[in-house]
Prior knowledge:
CATH topology: Arginase, Chain A
Number of domains: 1
Helix content: 25-40%
CATH class: Alpha Beta
Shape: globular
Number of helices: 11
Bound molecules: ligand ZLM, calcium ion, zinc ion
Strand order of the largest sheet: 2-1-3-8-7-4-5-6
Strand content: 5-15%
CATH superfamily: Histone deacetylase domain
Number of strands: 8
Distance between the termini: 45 Å
Amino acid sequence: ENGIERPTGYNVSFHYNPKVEGHHFGRSHPMKPWRLTLTKQLVLGYGLQYAMDTYVSRPASRQELEIFHGKSYLNFLSSITPENMEQMGDLGRFNFGDDCPVFDGMWDYCRLYAGASFDAAAKLISKQSDIAINWSGGLHHAKKNEASGFCYINDIVLAIQAMLTVESRVLYVDIDVHHGDGVEQAFWSTDRVMTLSYHKFGDFFPGTGAMDETGPESIENPGWKMALNVPLHDGIDDEQYRDLFSEITGAAIETFNPGAIVLQCGADSLGGDRLGKFNLNIRAHGYCIEFVKSKCHNRRLMLVGGGGYTPRNVARAWCHETSVCVGASLKNHIPGHVPYRQAFTGEENGDGLMYPDLANHPSKRHPNLHSKEYLQMMKQNIHTQLRFIQN
Length: 391
Ligand code: ZLM
Ligand code: CA
Ligand code: ZN
């Protein structure tokens, strides 16, 4: 008994293994596991560890990864190294290259981020946690037999599969700026998982996720209409995103009535991201987590990370979203004792603030290409699609 009171009635667990943060995809590759160190330093600097259970996650086993991934792909992934890749061949077959390089410790890295999602799922399944967080996961592009878009193992698919052992329906929501194609495809043919992705569409990776991409069209396929997609353009702002997100996600939750929700919180949808082209601020991104949490009184909730290529802002967003889960509010001035505090200071880095104005940076703002009519049409379209789904 240490006298520390929890600020909310939610049991939140935080799953992390510091061994993930030291891995390098290679010089100038946009994916930097080091952003997880920054996130952790902010979370600890604000003292959020006292309001939740923190666990050092274990690496996933090969058998666990086989629940989704193919054996020959896993054989390849577990044995290839930068030293033997010349002799191994098959790089093209499994889609290794500039986006998904072979790097030192890659297999350990994969087992670690997947293990944290398995641990998070287990805490939700046993009901020891109401909300479980794995910021190292959320790698939504990985396919059964192929790496894709910086993702090698699809920890989200594995976590959803685990939750389907205790829940009849799981909703997947994805606010990464990229389309959640790997998760959509994995559950393409089942009515037990609904997927909902918000993303930039049009001349942008991975190229899928059009509005009318709703699952293989057949009345014999229970998964038809179970994939929801919200394709967006450059420059969407806080107000437009909040409005779209609450209306569409709210309608999906009401119609599908899932027992569990997995929320992928990719931070590349923030303003000022190296790859993304939206104009969102931290609080608007975090609003999506607040909104989903508010609908989860009797549902399990898992939060995973994903993209995010301006590390200081990834750390800000995920620390803020951790605070949303535990029901704390953070002062805008980042505590002075946070290690790596320099990463957040100076005009370029957000003036030592937790909530700098990311959307209005004159050199980083993207022209907003959304008309009222387009946003209205998108909502209408989703409502029409949801009318096909009965529960
Ligand atoms: N080239 N280096 C999001 C995944 C986005 C495919 C165009 C590779 C990059 C990017 C890699 C250092 C998530 C594509 C890109 C260059 C074919 C993408 C290595 C810069 C670099 O400097 C770079 C040599 C690299 C990759 C940029 N790749 C930007 N965008 C996308 C994948 C993952 O956020 O959704 C979840 C974690 N790939 O556009 C190309 C078509 C490969
Ligand atoms: Ca998305
Ligand atoms: Zn992304």
